[in-house]
Amino acid sequence: MVSGTFDRRTGTWWFGIANEDVKIAIQAAHQSANRLQKPIAIQSDLSVVPADQATKEVLEIVRP
To answer: Along the 64 residues of the chain, how does pLDDT read in single tens digits?
Structure first.
């Protein structure tokens, strides 16, 4: 999961990403991994790409 401190008052992680955005990125990564049958990376901007095509800091790798 995404590391860092979560601010319950504002619903954001310490780096300013909203909790709901993180949930959506994780759901998208799981769906993509299952559909493509390959590891998917969630990058620091919450973009979801195949792990071998990641160009930014990877927060999480989701496997099928």
So the answer is: 445 554 555 555 555 566 778 889 999 999 999 999 999 999 888 899 999 999 998 888 999 9
Evaluate whether residue 2 is within a structural domain: no
Q: Return the HEC string of the chain.
A: CCCCCEECCCCEECCCCEHHHHHHHHHHHHHHHHHHCCCEEEECCCCEEEHHHCCCCEEEEECC
Residue 9 within any structural domain of the chain? no
| Domain of residue 46, residue span | 20-62
Number of domains in the chain: 1
Amino acid in the structure at residue 59: L
